[in-house]
Amino acid sequence: MSTGWIVLGVIVIIVLFAFAAYNRLVALSQRVSQAFADIDVQLKQRHDLVPNLVETVKGYASHERGTLDDVIKARNSAISAQGPAQVSAAENQLSGALGRLIALSEAYPDLKANANFQQLASELSDLENKIAASRRFFNNAVQEYNTGIQQLPAALFAGMFGFTRKEFFDLGASRTEVEVAPTVKF
């Protein structure tokens, strides 16, 4: 009789561990989803800003058509991207194209002095900082989630419940550019 109670007690403990692990993994997964949604909001704001920036530059540097077309193509690609990996790659392309667009202002002093361009460039800079902060928050949430599904006792149940590793919002190809320290020459 007492063996039955012990077995029942062990089963109850295992079930409680499974419920606790499941609930914790659901909470971590929701945090990852919420963090990605935060990035998505920031990226949408950037996508909305790009046409205004392109139109402003177009007025001053209309013969820079290739750069303007690259920005529009990168924006359209970024808008249609799905999931963290595709969004990350598309946004990195858009960041590069926007960097080239902003660099055009150095060649056109009238454009650089334009109040509308300055305001749009300032908004873009602010959004880039917000996106970077959102990416850090997202990557932290992914790290906690991935750690959660690999730690015991959750690791015993994670696969059964359908929890799989999530990808980080990575810099991708531009990582080598970011990791190389700039050279300063006097």
From TrEMBL:
InterPro entries: LemA-like_dom_sf, MamQ_LemA. GO terms for cellular component: membrane. The keyword Transmembrane applies. It is a single-pass membrane protein. Its main location: membrane. Keywords: Membrane, Transmembrane, Transmembrane helix. The chain crosses the membrane at residues 6-25. It comes from the Bacteria. It is found in: Membrane. Belongs to the LemA family. This is LemA family protein. The lineage of its organism: Bacteria, Pseudomonadati, Pseudomonadota, Alphaproteobacteria, Hyphomicrobiales.
